[in-house]
Prior knowledge:
Blueprint: E1 2-7, H1 12-21, H2 27-30, E2 37-39, E3 45-50, H3 55-60, E4 66-70, H4 71-77, E5 82-86, E6 92-98, H5 101-105, E7 112-116, H6 119-128, E8 133-137, H7 144-148, E9 153-158, H8 162-166, E10 170-178, E11 180-184, H9 188-191, H10 193-211
Parallel strand pairs: 1-3, 1-4, 7-8, 7-9
Antiparallel strand pairs: 2-3, 4-11, 5-11, 6-9, 6-10
1-O-pyrophosphono-5-O-phosphono-alpha-D-ribofuranose binds next to strand 9 and helix 8.
Amino acid sequence: xxxxxxxxxxxxxxxxxxxxxxxxxxxxxxxxxxxxxxxxxxxxxxxxxxxxxxxxxxxxxxxxxxxxxxxxxxxxxxxxxxxxxxxxxxxxxxxxxxxxxxxxxxxxxxxxxxxxxxxxxxxxxxxxxxxxxxxxxxxxxxxxxxxxxxxxxxxxxxxxxxxxxxxxxxxxxxxxxxxxxxxxxxxxxxxxxxxxxxxxxxxxxxxxxxxx
Length: 212
Ligand code: PRP
């Protein structure tokens, strides 16, 4: 049996669509319920539904053999696992954002206060630019940081750009593009090579078909 950690929330439906196209029965997972563990009828696959930012931990420890996680989460968590495929889902970007006036003044003032759900990414990004920042970790609605004066700028994901626009904020610097990745436990890749290999190859073929 292969255990797959599925992220709850915005990536969930697209991920299930992809797995169903591989012939994996995901009907039970789609049903509205509070259940967190599902096994396919043939007993080949067990799904565990986890908070997106927890997927890398489940995969690193081998509780899940594989999982689907955003590149943002992988960069933030820095876990030991294999990133096997770019699933081309949940495309967005990580960026520094703030009020448009900051564009002209630059964001290189000393000791910027940065609000973010991604303290590690933020630390790495600004230390790469030799900028001293004070990082304020928030758990959501990060855009409130500059709006309330809590922070000068934010580091966050930008998808449609709507949240920024509706709050009078703009992208100041791009950090990197983000998309969902298929990740695999390092031991499982050896011990369950056939089962995991089949899923990876199936997904690879599907994605190739989409690109061509
Ligand atoms: C994310 C992110 C931005 C927004 C970006 O928040 O933190 O706030 O989505 O999307 P957009 O560019 O399409 O507007 P999420 O919806 O996950 O909620 P949160 O603020 O509670 O984390």
